[in-house]
């Protein structure tokens, strides 16, 4: 039985079919340097908002669960524009895509 509400994120995957109880973040799962993912991290994760509002046409993201001040975990994002091969200081704004 699901205990959490679904997450509106392309990287969220859940399987509660026939008694299964499996959830994962398929973005953080790719990053072997990250601390483990847990569902609660989605509630403050910046990724859905970035994907919704970025002007970057080919954004590529890497997400890492980090621990701040010894106790608070949160998701940090590293973004590049895969079209122009530049790092994005602000994942919501690619200066090269803006010019086009
Ligand atoms: S942690 Fe972020 S990227 Fe991963 S499933 Fe949750 S909202 Fe999506």
Question: What characteristics describe this protein?
Answer:
three-stranded antiparallel sheet; globular; 2 helices; two-stranded antiparallel sheet; 100 residues
What is the topology?
Blueprint: E1 12-15, E2 22-25, H1 47-53, E3 59-68, E4 72-81, E5 86-87, H2 95-99
Antiparallel strand pairs: 1-2, 3-4, 4-5
Bound molecules: iron/sulfur cluster.
Residues 7, 9, 11-12, 25, 27-28, 41-42, 45, 47-48, 63, 75 line the site of iron/sulfur cluster.
Description:
There is one protein chain. The chain is of the alpha+beta class and 100 residues long. It has one domain (28-99). Helix content is 12%, strand content 30%. It has helices spanning 47-53, 95-99; strands at residues 12-15, 22-25, 59-68, 72-81, 86-87. The strands form 2 sheets. A 3-stranded antiparallel sheet has the order 3-4-5, with no helix packed on it. A two-stranded antiparallel sheet has the order 1-2. A hairpin with a 3-residue loop joins β3 (59-68) and β4. It starts with 11 loop residues before the first strand and ends with a helix. The model has no long low-confidence stretch (mean pLDDT 94). The protein binds iron/sulfur cluster. Residues 7, 9, 11-12, 25, 27-28, 41-42, 45, 47-48, 63, 75 line the site of iron/sulfur cluster.
């Amino acid at each position: 039985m699901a205990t959490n509400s679904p997450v509106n994120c392309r990287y969220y995957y859940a399987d509660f079919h026939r008694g299964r109880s499996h959830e994962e973040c398929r973005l953080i799962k790719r990053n072997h340097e990250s601390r483990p993912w847990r569902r609660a991290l989605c509630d403050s994760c910046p990724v859905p908002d970035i994907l919704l509002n970025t002007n970057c046409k080919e954004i590529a993201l890497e997400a890492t669960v980090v621990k701040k001040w010894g106790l608070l975990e949160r998701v940090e994002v590293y973004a590049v524009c895969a079209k122009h091969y530049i790092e994005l200081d602000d994942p919501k704004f690619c200066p090269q895509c803006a010019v086009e």
